[in-house]
Write a structure and sequence with these properties.
It is an enzyme of class 4 (lyase). Its cofactor is [4Fe-4S] cluster. It holds the Pfam family EndIII_4Fe-2S. The protein has two domains: 102 residues, Helix-hairpin-Helix base-excision DNA repair enzymes (C-terminal) (Endonuclease Iii, domain 2); 100 residues, Endonuclease III, domain 1 (Orthogonal Bundle). Helix content is 62%, strand content 0%. The chain contains twelve helices and no strands.
Length: 221
């Protein structure tokens, strides 16, 4: 089986089990998605959604965030972790959006990553989920699943992004993000993967290695 054939089967199985793409962060517009994604760094989407439910009622525009008091915003987002840097970046980001883009969120990758606190992952979430521009988002789940499946040997998220862009058809880039995240949460869980329940195990080099090691330990025990 060629790598291309393997990728085709993996994509079909992911789609069969998880269906079309779905953004896990609640939002009503581009700037809400941008801020929610910034908050999601080192934090669960569920926690971010709890925080933004009240946050977006208090701050109803880019201007509100640009003019926010740092200490107050820190308290508002405290439970998402790393709240000092996140609050500082959100304020600076929104000030630049007002200054350079009339409060609108750009779709260009270079313009997005020039904003405070916005890396390629955050930029690609916005590009893919709001602007529907084919983009590959590499979070911890996508990184882990991609490596175990043998789709990349890299650890750097940017290198993984470009590896997946070469392997996966462009029209599947947005879908594969949320499908791999769903798989990482449900089956391919960090530190306790459910390999025996995994529909991708026949195509997973890392999973087969983990199962082999597990059997060795069981025999010794």
């Amino acid at each position: 089986m060629t790598k291309k054939e393997k990728v085709t089967i993996i994509l079909e199985l992911l789609h069969e089990h998880y269906g079309p793409t779905k953004c896990y962060l609640d939002h009503e517009n581009a700037w809400q998605l941008l801020i929610a994604t910034m908050l999601s760094a080192q934090c669960t989407d569920a926690r971010v959604n709890l925080v933004t439910k009240d946050l977006f009622k208090k701050y109803t525009s880019v201007k509100d965030f640009a003019q926010a008091d740092l200490a107050e915003l820190e308290q508002d987002i405290h439970s998402t972790g790393f709240y000092h840097n996140k609050a500082k970046n959100i304020i600076a980001c929104c000030q630049k959006l007002l200054q350079d883009y009339n409060g609108e969120v750009p779709s260009d990758i270079e313009q997005l990553t020039a904003l405070a606190g916005v890396g390629r992952k955050t930029a690609n979430v916005v590009r893919g989920n709001w602007y529907h521009i084919p983009s590959v988002v590499v979070d911890t789940h996508v990184k882990r699943v991609s490596n175990l499946l043998g789709l990349t040997k890299n650890e750097d998220p940017v290198k993984i992004e470009f590896d997946l862009m070469q392997l996966v058809p462009k029209d599947k880039w947005i879908d594969i993000n949320t499908q791999m995240i769903a798989h990482g949460r449900k089956i391919c869980i960090a530190r306790r993967p459910k390999c025996q329940e995994c529909f991708l195990l026949p195509y997973c080099t890392g999973g087969k290695a983990l199962e082999k090691e597990k059997k060795k330990k069981e025999k010794k025990a």
